[in-house]
Amino acid sequence: MSTLLEQLIEAFRVLPGVGTKSAQRMAYHVLERERAGGQHLAQVLADAVDRIGHCVRCRDFSENEVCEVCASASRDVDQLCVVETPADRLAIEQATGYRGLYYVLQGRLSPLDGIGPRELGLDRLGQRLAEGEVQELIIATNPTVEGEATAHYLAQLARQHGVRPSRLAYGVPLGGELEYVDRGTLSHAFGTRTEIRE
Questions:
Q1: Average pLDDT, the chain
Q2: φ/ψ bin of 134: left (φ > 0), alpha (ψ from -120 to 50), beta (otherwise)
Q3: Are the beta carbons of 122 and 103 closer than 8 angstroms?
Q4: Which residue, of 22, 24, 154, 178, has the greatest Cβ tally within 10 A?
Q5: How far is CA 82 from the centre of its chain?
Q6: Sign of CA dihedral 27, 30, 35, 38
Q7: What pLDDT score was predicted for residue 39?
Q8: First vs last C-alpha separation in the chain
Q9: CA 20, CA 10: separation in Å to the nearest integer?
Q10: DSSP state, 180?
Q11: pTM for the full model?
């Protein structure tokens, strides 16, 4: 039976990049200096886990059925940018002047991990493309092996529905993750995206 302190340390380890030592430091810090902050963190975390779901249109995180971006009348409905994660969507939103809509895959194609088109909601994306509003599908998957395979699949899906696919230009380093690319590089790459030719 582990002690409550051991359980707290182990709980911090669910965060990415947090090992035993870091988790131990966080637990001790909360108990020694930030008990009120720890209680606030626990309450906000519990509320977020209970109340934040996914937008039915774009699959981004949202407290409502339809997120603010999808509900906005000022967004350009003929452009749809596909990203792997909510963090990628936020990076593009903050670094560029893009005013279209998004579709968040919540991952990338990875057959070895059991992630196929269905797990990424590509059936729903296909339905959205079939509605006829979207004219350009901007593919903003990460330039990794899985990201490139996903981009290829998305380009084919777009063409099936008469939508022009485009891909971010390669100012983004190969093997990198969008959320870690500096704003200038990401903005340049987004502004110089090119059409994917057959």
A1: 92
A2: beta
A3: no
A4: 154
A5: 9
A6: negative
A7: 94
A8: 60
A9: 8
A10: G
A11: 0.79
